[in-house]
Amino acid sequence: MNLDPLFLALIGGLLIGAAACLLLLFTGRIAGISGLINRLVFLPDRLWPALFLIGLVAGAAMFYALGGERPAAREGFPVWLLALAGVLVGFGTSLAKGCTSGHGVCGLGRLSLRSLAAVLTFMLTAVFTTFVVRHLFGVM
C-alpha cells in the first residue's frame, strides 16, 4: 500500500479525535495516555484503560499488517540521552497533570485555558530542547 503520508496523517488524526470524543461521550473520561497508564497501574478501574491502550497498539499493528511503512529508527543516538529524555517527559507529564493527548487533543478541543498553557509550555520546551541537543551538543 503506497498512500500519501499526509493522507495517512489526516486519517490518523481523525481516528484519534473520534476515539477521544467517543471516550468522553460514553464514559466522561479524557483520553490522556499518561492518565490512562496511571489508572491502569494504580487504580482498581482497569478494564476500559486496558481496552483503550490495546486498541492503540492493535491499530498500529493493523496499519503495519496492511503494508504501512514503519518509521525509521534513530541510529547512533546516545542511550543516556534517550533515558534522560524519558525521565524528563515522565516528570513533565506529572507536573502538567497530563500529556500531549490529554492537553493537546482533548483539552484544546474543550477550549481549556489550562491545556493551552500546558501545550504552549511543552511545545516551547521541545523547540528549546531540540535546539540545545542539536546545536550545542551536536547530536543529530
From TrEMBL:
Q: Which residues cross the membrane?
A: 6-26, 47-65, 77-96, 116-137
Q: Which domain of life is it from?
A: Bacteria
Compartments in which it is found: Cell inner membrane
> Which GO CC annotations does the UniProt entry carry?
plasma membrane
Note the topology in the membrane: Multi-pass membrane protein
InterPro entries listed in its UniProt record:
Sulf_transp_TsuA/YedE
What keywords appear on the UniProt entry?
Cell inner membrane, Cell membrane, Membrane, Transmembrane, Transmembrane helix, Transport
Family under the similarity heading: Belongs to the TsuA/YedE (TC 9.B.102) family.
Q: Please identify the protein, giving its name as recorded.
A: Uncharacterized protein
